[in-house]
From TrEMBL:
PANTHER family with a match to the protein in the record: PROTEIN GVPL 2 (PTHR36852:SF1)
Location in the cell: Gas vesicle
Ranges of Low complexity composition bias in the record: 1-13
Keyword terms, alphabetized: Gas vesicle
Region (Disordered): 1-21, 157-176
Family named by the database record: Belongs to the gas vesicle GvpF/GvpL family.
Organism, as annotated: Streptomyces macrosporus
Protein name according to UniProt: GvpL/GvpF family gas vesicle protein
Chief location of this protein within or outside the cell: other
Amino acid sequence: MTDTALPDTTVHPTPVPATPPDTTTLTCVFAVCRAGRAEAPAGVSGHTEGGALRTLPAGRLTAVVQHVPAVGFSQEALRERLADRRTLEECARAHHEVVSAVAAVADTVPLPLATLYLDDDRARSALVGNERRFLDVLDRITGRLEWGVKVYTVAPRTRPERSGPPPAASPGPGAGRAYLERLRNRRQERDRFHDAALRTAERVDAAARAVAVAARRLRAHGPEATGKHRSQVLNAAYLVPVGQERRLREALAPYQGTPGVELELSGPWVPYSFTDGSALA
């Protein structure tokens, strides 16, 4: 999960063929709630190319859906469009805005970006076929929200060392040995900071789990996301009962300001990490 809590932006495998036959629109499903709980959210429009947001009854469930043009949302078209980072971000934000608006009024299972069906009947059939699993997930997340915790190790600020071997004109016979010794000491210092951050991360995780009802370790972000001066050692999501936010903050407070460590708490978010909508749709 990122700080903006956007959904997984991998194009979700759907029952839509590469070129949908004899149809002008597809049904895009954003989120699923218990029957009668969801309503078409006001103030958000979904995908700009699509029609109005609406609800789709499906047995004991209700989905929030939108008709989208088949020509722009076939698998081939989506692969091409979402290869562009700007278009991908626009689609992901549109999806997330709908999910967040629905979740503001009802317990919600968010579905992955670009969950598409040929028509309403096929979408309804898929939802009813997974009805029991959706209801189980809704039971799990009712009255609970997701919080994200990230821990980074931050290397101590030191004066940059000259790269390459010591200059030929270095004074004294021990200059080269001293240069290598400084490099070795810096590596050892970085390793010590990293090991200390890992231990702190484990304590942070244990403290958060003591408050949460469920937890997930997520893939750590690389330097392209964290920056070159810090390294992520914990990226985790916690499912926390509503009303326990203060307790969570108090549990993590002792680790704020730990030397060489940065701790970030974000949320609350729609519980994307605990609904596994990709396995349900």
